[in-house]
Amino acid sequence: SPWPRYGETPDTDTPEVKAWVQAVDWSKVPKLPIRKTKSRGDPPDCPEHEVPEDECWWTCSGCFAHDDVMDCPAKDAWGLTFDDGPQPGTTEDLLELLKHKNVTATFFVTGMKSSRAPWLLQETIDQGHHLASHTWSHSGMTTLTNEQVVAELKWTEKYIYDHTGYKIKYFRPPYGDVDNRVRAIARQLGFKTVIWSHEWDTQDWQLEENTITPTQIESIFKNGLKSLSKRETGPISLEHDGDPKMVTVA
Ligand SMILES: [Zn+2]
After folding, report:
1. Is 191 part of a structural domain of the chain?
2. Does residue 24 have a pLDDT over 90?
3. CATH number at residue 77
4. What is the pLDDT of residue 25?
5. Catalytic pick from 83, 179, 204, 241?
6. Fewest C-beta atoms under 10 Å: which of 135, 148, 154, 229?
7. pLDDT single digits (tens) 147-202
8. ipTM exceeds 0.95, yes or no
């Protein structure tokens, strides 16, 4: 297969990645440390000292940048987003449910999962939904080198474009793991970084570990709804379609 391997950060020593890296204006990318992580692919370990403000490292200091997308501009809009798919079975069930409820959503897909179910990308678009990038291998982006970040983002964009003709505009870092270095690279590649509205993280990923119940998730939704009237903007909620248990709650 000409595509990167499943579950791995794409190789950077290839003609494709070299050309992509060369097209970036690296003078606009700050030189920040590559973050440490216990095991490859996991989110980074946060340092004991405070994160310098100019690094704006969301995962470890909650900092967001002026152009991070965190809310929908319209107050009455609700950005329904699903991460970590496409997953055969689960994604189809979710598409069916959304069609039934007549709502559209944005699916932040990984390149690796897409490469195992490319037909689901087209099906998602055909039903009026949006696709966005959740990187190739779902690694903590701040733990990767500049070249690896480029490879993660560009291979995912290329995979989706080559299979659907759909041009990705938005990128959501796995675990929300983004700092000013990763943001600058994404910006250079033409992607807007999307985080999520804090009180609207449904924590549904904990279903996988059975540490949260469907009722608790429902109450996160209800609390979010209560806070709606106080908001100036519409929320972006975060859910997942990578695991069958999660779609049953939706
Ligand atoms: Zn994710």
Report:
1. yes
2. yes
3. 3.20.20.370
4. 98
5. 83
6. 229
7. 999 999 999 999 999 999 999 999 999 999 999 999 999 999 999 999 876 555 55
8. yes
Residue 249's alpha-carbon distances to 175, 218, 245, in angstroms, are: 21, 8, 7
What span, in angstroms and rounded, lies between the C-alpha atoms of 160 and 22?
22
15-22 vs 146-164: helix crossing angle, rounded to 10: 110
Residue 238, classed as helix, strand or coil, is strand
Closest CA to 69 of 77, 94, 39: 77
Asked whether residue 194 is domain-assigned, the answer is yes
Domain count, the chain: 1
- Residue 93 is among the residues annotated as catalytic for this protein: no
What DSSP line would sit under 170-186, residue for residue?
EE--GGG---HHHHHHH
Q: Provide the token pair at 177.
A: 């793991």
In a domain, 18, yes or no: no
Q: pLDDT band for 248, please (50, 70, 90 cuts).
A: very low
Question: Exposed/middle/buried for 33, CB within 10 Å: 0-12, 13-18, 19+?
Answer: exposed
| Residue of 129, 134, 138, 240 with catalytic role | 240
- Expressed as residue numbers, the domain containing 123 is 64-249
Token pair for 166: 């759909």
Please provide the DSSP assignment of 87-111 as one string: -TTHHHHHHHHHHHHT---EEEE-H
Distance from the alpha carbon of residue 240 to the mean position of ligand 1, in angstroms: 7
